[in-house]
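Need ABC transporter permease's 3D structure for a figure. Predict it.
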Amino acid sequence: MKRSYQALEPTLFFLMLMVIWEISARMIGQPYLLPSPIQIVMRTIDLSESLFFTHLPATLAIISIGLALSIVLGILLSLLMFWNERVERAVYPLLVASQTIPVIALAPIFVLWFGYSIWSKVAVTVLLTFFPITVNTYDGLKSTNRQYEELFYTMGATKRQLFFRLFVPSTLPSFLTGLRIAVPLAVIGAAVGEWLGANEGLGYFSRRMMTQFDGPGVFAPIFILSLLGILGFAAIKKLENILLPWRKKQ
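Structure prediction for ABC transporter permease:
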């Protein structure tokens, strides 16, 4: 009963925002400037074949490859920083500095380096997503209880056993938190990369509709991108509930 009530509040608030948006758009009466939610949904249905069978797979490929690379790079880099203080002192400031550079400024450079291939968009996605994964995983490793580590050594545990039976379980909550943050950022990175240089993808399609002053057409792929981010976030949250059931009780 309590969960149903908690879910009802954001649902009602969302519906209220949609009603306000619908009324405001109809009062303005300029769909190319502010299309209404109903117009966006109808346009999404009209363009569904192109959006879902051509452009959505291209965007999903960028998101999947970018996230996979970020996970691998983030875990490896966090382990290197954890095992070697010199690496941590040298790399950590560069990690922070990488997030101060506007992605919109680097995206054209990636297009120059990789052309209009998938890799220019993947590079933008990795730039946005590897930071939260790396930092959260590193913080999880650093926050492992040292008393447990000493207990493992006292009981004769090997370094391999210590890593997989103590550090991995201790770091998993932080890693999943970083991944939960990275998934919506991956959607943004893919869209930005496609917007600046691509031949297909939801971001590219939105830009193409903009040149035709098709307001609902511009918002249709944005609507799908938003759904992708929400579904990805929910999927990681569900995985977190499965792997860490004790968190739900806190």
